[in-house]
Amino acid sequence: LAKNDHRGVAVATGDAADVAGRQRLTTLEELRTGLDRRELTLHYQPQMHLGTGVVTGVEALVRWDHPRRGLIFPDVFLPLAEHAGLMGRLTLQVLDMALEQCRDWRADGLELVVAVNLSASNLQDATMPGHVADALARYDVPPAALHLEITEEILMRDAARATVVLAELRAMGVRLAVDDYGTGYSSLAYLHALPVDDLKLDRAFVTHCDTDPRSAAIVKSTVELAHNLGMRMIAEGVESEAALSRLREWDCDLVQGYHLSRPQPADRLATWLRERQPGPRDPRRTGDEVT
Ligand code: C2E
Ligand code: MG
Ligand code: MG
Ligand code: MG
To answer: Is the beta carbon of 119 within 6 A of some atom in ligand 1?
Structure first.
């Protein structure tokens, strides 16, 4: 039982300062059980191609459907999982759920690409590319339908080791994006050398790009940088029509944000998509498509 696990009794009782620590330990023990019981679930947030208005993919965002506490957000449990060495297992579960869902959507005529986030330890794990290949084969999903997102901060931590894993993933045909770009101090030399396809500019620069001149300057020059490096630019945190218009004007490739849709469960996303893009099997009926 998790409660009797030797890792669970390391904290002394009675001290007020220990309360937060004990809370974390409880959460961690419950997370181990939660992984066994498959309590993790995914919400999906659409990504729209700005040139055509077509939703081409979704980002899978993990939530923990806790039996007592309800839906718990990743900021609460991902750092614990990473610290306790559970990230390998967690990522495999997320990949499995995301690719199963991707297969089901494709079977229903929804040709969506699914983006999955990787953690720091995933990039140091030489077995990761093999696991990804297994999961793709298990659901018969083409590698090009899987995108993997790695935050700039994580990429910079051990770029040399990460590059080996990334190159292997990319050689399989999986597409790679630098997530939260602009917050992680990557040098242009690294950006040039990294085997990545897309730059996903952090929402700190995107959300107010329609009103803040400095954000605008950063967005515009990042689009240019991405394109000059042969990459696509994805803007996250698009919260208004005004920001969306500017991004279109500046030739940004893809957008994601509350203005389009919040992350939502798979069934709701499919309904939302069908109402927005009727008849996904028939390109002539997608009103946004350029003819
Ligand atoms: P991220 O990968 O940068 O994902 C975007 C986050 O911004 C999500 O938060 C999303 O709900 C939120 N977001 C989307 N649009 C908007 C917007 O217009 N405005 C604002 N203010 N926020 C927006 P979420 O789902 O809480 O995830 C937080 C972070 O947790 C993610 O940031 C990612 O780094 C990490 N994460 C989530 N799922 C996974 C996973 O399965 N594996 C790993 N390793 N990390 C994950
Ligand atoms: Mg992401
Ligand atoms: Mg991000
Ligand atoms: Mg983030």
So the answer is: yes
Instruction: For residues 253 and 39, give the distance between their C-alpha atoms in angstroms, rounded to a whole number.
Output: 35
β-pairing, 113-117 vs 146-151, is: parallel
Query: Which H/E stretch holds residue 59?
Result: strand 55-66
Distance (Å) from CA 237 to ligand 1 centroid: 10
Q: Of 42, 149, 236, 256, which is best to mutate to test ligand 1, by the most ligand atoms within 8 angstroms of its C-beta?
A: 236
Confirm or reject: Cβ of 257 under 6 Å from ligand 1.
yes
**211 CB contacts (<8 Å, ≥6 apart)?**
242
Among protein residues, the one with the nearest Cα to ligand 1's atom 42 is 117
- For the segment 202-239, what is each residue's pLDDT rounded down to a tens digit? 999 999 999 999 999 999 999 999 999 999 999 999 99
**CA distance linking residue 234 with residue 147, whole number of Å:** 12
Helices and strands (H, E) in the chain, number of each type: 12, 9
* Close Cβ partners of 217 (under 8 Å, ≥ 6 residues apart): none
pLDDT (tens digit per residue) in 32-49? 999 999 999 999 999 999
pTM of the full structure = 0.90
Question: Which residue's CA lies nearest to atom 43 of ligand 1?
Answer: 117
